[in-house]
Specification:
This protein is 51% helix and 15% strand. It contains twelve helices and ten strands. The strands form three sheets. The protein has a four-stranded mixed sheet with strand order 1-4-5-8. It has a four-stranded antiparallel sheet with strand order 2-3-7-6, with no helix packed on it. A two-stranded antiparallel sheet has the order 9-10. The radius of gyration is 21 Å and the shape is globular. The protein binds flavin-adenine dinucleotide. Flavin-adenine dinucleotide binds next to strand 1, strand 3 and helix 12.
């Protein structure tokens, strides 16, 4: 099977040397530092803190932050290539990268110069560990505008009360980018603001870690705010402008999740092909059966289509286009193509595909959540159709 570099050449989308280098250096790190312990971390749910710190020092937690602000200055195409390479080795680490990059991009785009000096620069230099993006709550995910965590103004501070749920890397994050209702009289998107809460702030209680089906080492926790007092100067952007900040970050972040899906699916396809080439049944290798060939062909086609949609969306984002429909198409198609490919590769492994001794079993579990987080498949379809109807 040809490698990723040649596969990218065959897509007909020109990549710059810099974009290739970003992908290749992420792949080198992932192969050396992430792949070896991925199965063990899946079993133990051990958060890859050391590796995340190293990724931070390499600039991968603030990839889309300009160099002048301490980030790596990577464009969206480079970001996709890095996410793909990391996810091929360890999807848990990749989703931590996704939420950290989501948060750092928000700070880069909306924080004041003083806030950037205080959080973004040390964070981008890898000194604060990962960052968390805290929008979802026990009572709302897709309908994020229904959030009920409040931040009541009290002199020169906000007092936060309420709970966030499903927060990736929440127990390890140096900073939390939290979405709260600053005006309790409002409903829906109005009155939602974005506030930074630093690790260890009194009143911030880290909840229990979720025992998940897949991506088990990503440290998914609840965050509880119990009279948590945060300086008013931690408000990011304008009061009441938080919902727009969240939506715009999520829109651009979707290409990263598409890249993550491509990482998982390429890993599964490579494992499936290798297995089919050596497994014998009825006196033949599996690759001699027509069905195996059709399965491989359909999978390759699915993934090339996902690559094309993903790189198209990333390229549009790099021109300054918000590309909401294209980003949603990339995430939706890549996550659903990933599901098809991974399922076929488990099937190709027969009984061994159902055993923890084979990587496809973990990939199958890791892949499932990609149709749920950062906007479910249904929400992506809503975004795409709204653009068509110009709503
Ligand atoms: C492992 C993991 C990590 C996560 N990390 C984070 C994180 O770091 N930060 C964060 O803020 N959140 C995070 N999330 C939360 C995630 O974004 C939400 O789970 C997701 O948005 C779905 O929200 P929900 O779970 O409340 O489901 P619901 O919104 O209750 O949806 C339930 C079902 O109803 C469907 N549905 C809802 N509304 C509509 C509609 N209008 N039309 C059609 N169908 C609809 C959904 O598609 C879904 O199938 C994470 C979740 C998981 C599982």
């Amino acid at each position: 099977m040809i490698g990723i570099a040649q596969r990218l050449d065959r897509l007909g989308i020109p990549l710059t040397e810099e974009q290739r280098m970003v992908g290749e250096s992420a792949r080198e790190f992932a192969t050396r530092r992430l792949a070896p312990g991925a199965a063990e971390r899946d079993r133990t749910m051990k958060f890859p803190l050391e590796q995340i710190k190293e990724l931070g020092a390499l600039g991968l937690l603030a990839m889309k932050v300009p160099i002048a602000e301490g980030g790596a200055g990577t464009d969206n195409v480079g970001y996709v290539l890095a996410m793909q390479a990391v996810a091929e080795a360890c999807a848990s680490t990749a989703v931590v990268l996704a939420s950290s990059n989501l948060s750092s991009k928000i700070l880069s785009e909306h924080a004041s110069p003083a806030q950037k000096e205080r959080w973004l620069r040390p964070y981008a230099e890898g000194k604060l560990g990962p960052a968390s993006f805290a929008l979802s709550e026990p009572g709302c995910g897709s309908d994020a505008a229904a959030l009920t965590t409040t931040a009541r103004r009290d002199g020169d501070a906000f007092i936060l009360d309420g709970s966030k749920m499903w927060i990736t890397a929440g127990a390890h994050a140096g900073i939390h980018v939290v979405f709260v209702r600053t005006d309790p009289g409002t409903q829906g998107p109005e009155g939602i603001s974005c506030i930074v809460v630093e690790r260890g702030t009194p009143g911030l209680v880290i909840g229990k870690e979720e025992d998940k089906m897949g991506q088990r080492a990503s440290g998914t926790v609840g965050l509880h705010f119990e009279g948590c007092r945060v300086p008013a100067e931690n408000l990011i952007g304008r009061q009441g402008g938080g919902y727009a900040i969240a939506l715009s970050a999520l829109g651009a972040g979707r290409v990263g999740i598409a890249g993550l899906c491509l990482g998982l699916a390429e890993a599964a396809l490579a494992a499936g092909l290798a297995y089919a080439e050596q497994r014998r049944a009825f006196g033949k290798t599996l690759t001699e059966f027509q069905n195996t060939r059709f399965v491989l062909a359909d999978s390759r086609m699915d993934l090339d289509a996902a690559w094309l949609l993903t790189l198209r969306a990333a390229s549009l984002l790099d021109t300054g286009d918000r590309a909401p429909a294209e980003s949603s198409m990339a995430k939706l198609f890549a996550s659903e193509a990933c599901a098809r490919v991974v399922d076929r590769m488990v099937q190709l492994h027969g009984g061994y595909g159902y055993s923890r001794d084979y990587p496809v079993e973990r990939i199958y579990r890791d892949a499932r959540v990609t149709r749920i987080y950062e906007g479910t498949s249904e929400v992506q379809r809503l975004v795409i159709s709204r653009q068509m109807l110009r709503e």
